[in-house]
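Hi support team,

I've been running sequence recovery on a batch of backbones for a student project. Most finish fine, but this one hangs at about 90% for roughly twenty minutes before it completes. I'm not sure whether the input is malformed or the queue is just slow. I've pasted the structure tokens below so you can try to reproduce it. Let me know if you need the job ID as well.

Thanks,
M.K.
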């Protein structure tokens, strides 16, 4: 991805730097050759240069670009998971995914970690975005997900001929788990996404089922992935599945829904980041009945929502690491509504706006393992910046409204927002 050349000064706004530090009123951020050269109070900023560009924050807020820590660019707002496999050919899903990535950038998301993709679409989208052929967040790609045969993602009997082969690699035992990771190595992924546990969305594999993958399979995945310098994450809701993942050496945990004190202790010992993804559960509870979800599934989502909020609060209180994001791309959680996750954490989970913004920026960068480069506004980091008209500390939901974005900047280049393309 190209970096900006020259100097850009963003001023006349409050600063939220993403580290959780209090906002700085009347701040200035100076970008030089795509990286942050100065960030802090306007009074301490270097003197203006004759040829610098100016972005007026107009009394609004300067904050880091948001990070979607569990992104599914290839989910095309489907009503049922199996639609991903049967509705469109890969060629068309690729175009839809490119459009979703552009939309995510317009929504202020300058980086995203894939939580699973149809085929290798995210691997190639990442390349297109890095080569400035397509617009989108800086992507960490995961390609296809790994699941045990007969597990959460393999519920269709053979006669239906819905194999989900675009989405998952099905494995039986540690030997096949190793083979699947080695295939993903060749595919060029950075992350290996697995399905160790069940989910409310699938009543036969509800949240308390742990053995969609055995510990031996999970351990084989981690050994092989780490050997090839790939990272591993997994859909972990059930308590034992969370512990298995942590003991197997997972690099992050998705959801971490049902945690007992021992699971929390393991999580804290290992400092493993978590992405809870809770707005999906709220939307499932609220909208599920109107889209034909059975009462058993809706009840399962309600239980998941309540336990997920409790886990998120426990992790925050214990000082754990957390990114925000999750499972946008279903009919009831469409692409473009990603910032509802932040609103949820403030309004429903009781996080402060600053805590929430830290999770959505630096926390996401920690999930990606890129916290030295992105995620906060600190001198030397890449200038991935969001300038918004308004104060998200008094109303976090303004981040859901991209018409309020003055600038979405990646590497110092304004890629979206009202000032995109302007030189002033
Ligand atoms: Zn997901």
């Amino acid at each position: 991805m190209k970096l900006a050349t020259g100097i850009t000064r963003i001023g006349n706004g409050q600063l939220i730097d993403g580290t959780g530090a209090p906002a700085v009123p009347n701040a200035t951020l100076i970008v030089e050759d795509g990286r942050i050269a100065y960030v802090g109070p306007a009074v301490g900023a270097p003197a203006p240069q004759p040829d610098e560009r100016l972005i007026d924050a107009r009394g609004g807020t300067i904050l880091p670009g948001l990070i979607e820590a569990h992104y599914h660019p290839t989910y095309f707002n489907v009503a049922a998971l199996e639609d991903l496999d049967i509705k469109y050919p890969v060629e068309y899903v690729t175009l839809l995914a490119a459009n979703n990535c552009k939309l995510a950038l317009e929504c202020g998301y300058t980086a995203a970690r894939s939580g699973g993709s149809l085929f290798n679409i995210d691997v190639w989208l990442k390349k297109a975005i890095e080569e400035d052929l397509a617009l989108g967040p800086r992507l960490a790609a995961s390609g296809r997900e790994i699941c045990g045969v007969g597990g959460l993602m393999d519920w269709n009997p053979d006669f239906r001929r819905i194999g989900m082969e675009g989405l998952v690699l099905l494995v039986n035992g540690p030997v096949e788990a190793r083979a699947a990771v080695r295939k993903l190595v060749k595919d060029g992924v950075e992350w290996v996404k697995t399905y160790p546990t069940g989910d409310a969305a699938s009543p036969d594999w509800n949240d308390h089922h742990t053995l969609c993958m055995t510990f031996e399979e999970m351990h084989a995945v981690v050994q092989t992935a780490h050997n090839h310098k790939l990272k591993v994450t997994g859909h972990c809701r059930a308590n034992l599945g969370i512990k298995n993942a942590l003991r197997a050496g997972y690099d992050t945990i998705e959801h971490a829904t049902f945690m007992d004190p021992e699971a929390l202790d393991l999580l804290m010992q290992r400092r493993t980041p978590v992405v809870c993804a809770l707005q999906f559960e709220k939307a499932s509870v609220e909208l599920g009945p109107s889209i034909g979800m059975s009462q058993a599934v809706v009840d399962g989502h309600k239980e998941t929502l309540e336990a997920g909020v409790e886990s998120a609060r426990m992790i925050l209180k214990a000082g754990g690491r957390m990114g925000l994001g999750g499972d946008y791309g279903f009919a009831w959680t469409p692409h473009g509504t990603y910032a509802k996750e932040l609103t949820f954490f403030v309004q429903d989970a009781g996080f402060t706006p600053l805590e929430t913004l830290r999770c959505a920026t630096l926390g996401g960068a920690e999930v990606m393992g890129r916290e030295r480069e992105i995620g906060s506004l600190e001198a030397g980091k890449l200038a991935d910046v969001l300038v918004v008209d308004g104060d998200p500390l008094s109303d976090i939901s303004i981040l859901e409204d991209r018409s309020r974005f003055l600038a979405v900047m990646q590497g110092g280049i304004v890629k979206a927002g009202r000032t995109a393309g302007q030189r002033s």
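--
Follow-up from support: It reproduced on our side and the slowdown came from queue contention, not your input. The chain has a mean pLDDT of 94. No action needed from you.
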